[in-house]
Amino acid sequence: MITGRFFAAGADRRVAITIFILLAVAIIVPLLNLAVSSTSAFYVPSYVVALTGKYLCYALLALALDLVWGYCGILSLGHGAFFALGGYAMGMYLMRQIGSRGVYGNPLLPDFMVFLNYRELPWFWYGFDHFWFAAIMVLAVPGLLAFVFGWFAFRSRVTGVYLSIITQAMTYALLLAFFRNDMGFGGNNGLTDFKDILGFNVQADATRSALFAASAVTLALAVFVTWAIVGSKYGKLLMAVRDAESRTRFLGWRAENVKLFAFTVSAVMAGIAGALYVPQVGIINPGEFEPSNSIEVVVWAAVGGRGTIVGPIIGALLVNAGKSWFTGVLPAFWLFALGGLFVAVTLFLPKGIVGMWDSWRGNARALRAASIAEEAGTDPDVPPAKIVRSAARTPGDWSASGPEPQPAE
Amino acid sequence: MSKSNTILYLDGVSVSFDGFRAINNLSLVLDKGEMRAIIGPNGAGKTTMMDIVTGKTRPDEGEVFFDGQVDLTKHDEADIAMMGIGRKFQKPTVFESHTIEENLMLALKGPRSIFPALFHRRSATEARQIDHILGIIRLGDKRDELAANLSHGQKQWLEIGMLLAQDPKLLLVDEPVAGMTDAETEETARLLKDIARDHSVIVVEHDMHFVRELGVKVTCLHEGSVLSEGSLDFLSADERVVEVYLGR
């Protein structure tokens, strides 16, 4: 019991350390980029700032997915859609900031609209010349879509693989819709050629550093919010719905509302990730709705350890760093490597990197306790490894050990 | 039949799945404060009856009333649970990745919406209630252990404890002693008799020793309707019950 509590404290400490590291990185990396001479060994090149900034956005997306998948068992294969919608909302703001500096020099219409013979700005572009409006849309559009989608899906008690399939269908439908030129979002080419964000040049090193810092701080905040949600009574309920949904219903809880809240919060987080991503990569196009993108997010979370807060972040950073390296060295084999990685993680690391680390540490501690007890000549009071690590953080769909979510009846 | 002073009133209830009549013109009345045991062979419709009462299954026809006036066919599981009907599943179903205490916490009577749960702080009253229930189900020394680590019998008790935390008026208890040792079975009988002092209870059970231990009126179901009703001795003497269930 004491080890259990210690480990609970350990998990909290890990979250605190993660937040601390993210905040420190938000200050140090921009400093090393801007204030250190480019000949110094400590200099961080601008392309590294942009690349890691992008990874932080992916990490936020993976964390968002983990909130619903790891803690509530909703395997969403469409989280890329919420990410892309947040990205489009930001992209629309950035398009409006171009003003008359476009190729066609039209002060009213973005380039692609001139090219496609638009006479006037479509109504849904109104307001996007204000940052505050775009910021609200970044939250509202993915949040609203998730709310409406979740309302119908959870109310109709669509669960498991069927839910995964309809989330996949959702992102695919959006992909096809955004590919159409008459949707008014730039069709195939999407939105690009951005100039300014809040009056600063998006290409400038200082702006890139600021966007990097914003991504790191936002991720830190999201870690805190997720930690607070998961630790609350609602968080316990979320995991209870994951493990025994009908039990929660017969206790009087509305499982559909429990899921809906988490799904909506998660979609908003994904939208924010997309909005931070777009100015850093300089483009948003319908490819972001690609179902395979959403599946990649699942791989990140699985590699790092779903049902943990730190796991998806580590997973997203590692897999993407691996991707950057791999696509540089053996570009043709990246997809095979990704597929192989997923198979390997499923087989050998069912709890992901963080989960594996925890059970390894738990076993080591139990062994040490046993040997100490033996030396002292007392009865070794060795807790089984599975108590040591709170299994609240171990959704056991795949794992052979640990509590299995059990269907009631 | 008058509905007043009944806690549960089923009249002419039928339900079929793919043409199979799981419940066939079933009528059953439970008085307030009564404990009833239900026996019957597999497939007699015992679990389906509980599904109907708790809102999981809608009957094709018939009346289901709770507390004399509430029509249960018009409500869903969460509503019915909030009205005061608690249910223990055949297979013990607890939240395995939570501790015993957290399991009870989630079951404890109180608001059931998202935002209160998000900002919930445990009050002294709640802590007292949990202590009280832990005492009743004898799991006080395991309060911080994960429910996954409990034995089968202890999980059954925890689930009964969760029902108590809900503070229902009517408890539906499906096979509470399945897989228990004799000592645990006796213990459970005592626990249920305790609970029956201030609750109405329906117990479905196959274990005849246990049913005898309870010493209450027994209903025998067969092919979706009531075959016979009365004391266990009366049923044991009933030719039809012996024929379909008890065996010669």
UniProtKB/TrEMBL annotation, chain A:
Q: How does it sit in the membrane?
A: Multi-pass membrane protein
Instruction: List keywords of the entry alphabetically.
Output: Cell membrane, Membrane, Transmembrane, Transmembrane helix
Where does it sit, as one GO cellular component term? plasma membrane
Sequence segments annotated as region (Disordered): 376-409
Give the UniProt subcellular location, in the record's own words: Cell membrane
Say which domain of life the source belongs to.
Bacteria
Q: Which residues cross the membrane?
A: 15-36, 42-61, 68-90, 131-154, 161-179, 210-230, 258-278, 298-319, 326-349
**InterPro entries according to UniProt:** ABC_transp_permease, ABC_transptr_urea_perm_UrtC, LivM-like
An MF annotation (GO) of this entry: branched-chain amino acid transmembrane transporter activity
**PANTHER family this protein is in?**
HIGH-AFFINITY BRANCHED-CHAIN AMINO ACID TRANSPORT SYSTEM PERMEASE (PTHR30482), SLR1201 PROTEIN (PTHR30482:SF4)
- Can you name this protein? Amino acid/amide ABC transporter membrane protein 2 (HAAT family)
| Species in which this protein is naturally found | Mesorhizobium tianshanense
From TrEMBL, chain B:
The protein's UniProt keywords, in alphabetical order, are: ATP-binding, Nucleotide-binding, Transport
Q: Where is the ABC transporter domain?
A: 8-248
Q: Name one GO molecular function term.
A: ATP binding
Any Pfam family the entry gives: ABC_tran
Taken from the UniProt entry, a GO cellular component term is: plasma membrane
Q: Which residues cross the membrane?
A: none
What the entry lists under CDD domains is as follows: ABC_Mj1267_LivG_branched (cd03219)
Its name, as the record gives it, is Urea transport system ATP-binding protein
Source species: Mesorhizobium tianshanense
Lineage here is: Bacteria, Pseudomonadati, Pseudomonadota, Alphaproteobacteria, Hyphomicrobiales
